[in-house]
Amino acid sequence: MLRQVPLALVCFRLLLGFAVFGLCWAPPTPPLRQLLAGLVVLGLLSDIFDGIIARRLGVATAKLRRLDSSVDTIFWLCVVAGVVRFCPRFLPNNAGWIGVVLGLEALTYGVSYARFRKEIALHTLGAKLWTLLLTAMLLQLLLTGQTGWLFGACVALGIVSRLEILGIVCILRSWAADIPTLYHALQLRRGQPIRRHPLFNG
Q1: How many helices (H) and strands (E) does the chain have?
Q2: What's the predicted TM-score (pTM) here?
Q3: CA 146, CA 12: separation in Å to the nearest integer?
Q4: Which of 82-91, 97-106, 190-199 has the highest mean pLDDT?
Q5: Cα 117 to chain center, whole Å?
Q6: Distance (Å, rounded) from C-alpha 105 to C-alpha 158?
Q7: Is the CB of residue 123 less than 8 Å from the CB of residue 72?
């Protein structure tokens, strides 16, 4: 049963994404704002700990990592779509930059499928940092209706991290999961072993 905890956390995050999207159609009230913020934080925590627990238990298979990446994408799309509904002025004011980040995300998946017939599961350090920044921005938006400088920082890091992922997918000779940075991808291409942090990439 313990070995099923990582998979359970992944499924839990998927349900959280659908719950956030559904609740965002209700009229905004302070208690609902707090509830939505709490659900987003739970989703982030499940994202952090599913990989750590899977590596500790020795069940961090390629299949699980691919599922984890796909659920991550679905969860954040649900959250962003829900927040757009919850804060209707957010999308019209920022549609261009949001489209750029989402377009790059779609491009990374498209290139990965074209090259390897598999979705990406890189879990780069840049993508992890971007997730934390995205969470902070969405929490501020949910709780206050404003984003301030966090939105610009989130867009900038989102673009940089997506471009890094795209570079990694193009550099790798074969599909691989948990590549911390572009530098590590270059090492793999040269046939050199890479070191991964036990907490972040196994």
Answers
A1: 7, 0
A2: 0.88
A3: 28
A4: 97-106
A5: 20
A6: 9
A7: no
